[in-house]
Specification:
Helix 2 packs antiparallel against helix 3, helix 3 runs antiparallel to helix 6 and helix 5 runs antiparallel to helix 6. The protein starts with a strand and ends with a strand. By secondary structure, it is an alpha+beta fold. 69% of the residues lie in helices and 11% in strands. Strand 2 and strand 3 form a beta hairpin. It has a four-stranded mixed beta sheet, with helices on one face.
């Protein structure tokens, strides 16, 4: 027998809660990023800090990436239809991939400009950043780190890969602000090239984050088994089933942020068709109750 979790009202309620939390977190962090971008650009221009302007570009890219996350979550939560009988969960992975590419290209632009200034070897024309850039860098570190933990908390709560990618985007912004702080401080202490070096370090942090997000999203796009611990827990759950004499095969695959399970069990061949159906139904319900991430379960009964 097989059953899709979305057949239940519980599935609809969870999807509604998923979208409600995602929208709430995304809009709040988007507002924060807009304000931070304005402050960073203003401080970078007033204090003559290329590192702070680069950091402002990074924060501005966060606004766009959050829009992508919102779209990805909205589309991935659509109900299954005739053309997409398994749902749309993988579209959230597509959103994460787009986010990683935007993040990488943003960082690449920052890194190229910084490298060009460093490579020129002429630092006499570099202006020393002022105090406003230093103050905004400190504020940015605190705010962006707070956004990271806030977004991460809810990403884990609703198991959203795109939202987790957005959380790491916030963390990369906090790290880039640390780089900006060091560079601005170094420039103020008499080493003007440090401001450009900080921009280069910011690019490295951004690129590393982008590559990690891309790798995780691509991994979820490919049908692969869930982790060993989850599979073992599924084995134990099935073997608890009434009159299950053994498991011939158990396969899992991760689909977006959901798990699909196919299991073949052995039961006494003297059971009637109705009895075999009831045994399979009991296993299905047990898995669905104990494993919230499992969306689709197929239980096949083999005579023993």
């Amino acid at each position: 027998m097989e059953k899709n979790r979305q057949d239940h009202g519980e599935g609809y309620r969870k999807d509604d809660q998923f979208q409600k939390i995602a929208r709430k977190v995304s809009f709040e962090t988007m507002l924060g990023n807009i304000l931070l971008s304005i402050f960073k650009f203003a401080a970078g221009c007033l204090a003559h800090s290329s590192a702070m302007i680069s950091d402002g570009v990074h924060s501005a890219s966060d606004v766009f990436s959050t829009v992508i996350v919102l779209i990805g979550i909205k589309v991935s939560s659509k109900e299954a239809d005739k053309e997409h009988p398994y749902g749309h969960e993988r579209l959230e992975c597509v959103a994460a991939i787009l986010l990683s590419m935007i993040l990488f290209m943003t960082g690449l632009g920052i890194g190229a400009n910084a490298l060009r200034r460093i490579w020129s070897g002429d630092y006499s024309g570099i202006k020393v950043p002022g105090m406003p850039a230093l103050v905004v860098a400190i504020i940015s570190i605190a705010v962006k780190e707070g956004m990271y933990w806030y977004t991460r908390h809810y990403a884990l709560q609703i198991d959203s890969g795109a939202m987790m990618a957005d959380a790491w985007h916030h963390r990369s912004d906090a790290l880039s602000s640390i780089g900006a702080l060091v560079g601005i401080g170094g420039a103020m202490l008499g080493f003007p090239v440090m401001d450009s070096i900080a921009s280069l370090v910011i690019f490295i942090f951004i690129a590393k984050t982008a590559i990690d997000i891309f790798g995780d999203a691509m991994n979820k796009m490919i049908d692969h088994a869930c982790d060993e611990e989850t599979e073992q827990a599924l084995y134990r759950c099935v073997l608890k089933g009434r009159e299950v004499q053994g498991i011939d095969k158990l396969k899992t695959r991760v689909f977006g942020n959901k798990i699909y399970v196919d299991v073949e069990i052995r039961v006494d061949k003297t059971h009637s068709l109705q009895e075999a159906h009831d045994i399979a139904h009991g296993i299905h319900d047990e898995i669905e109750r104990d494993f919230p991430k499992v969306k689709h379960i197929m239980v096949h009964v083999n005579p023993d």
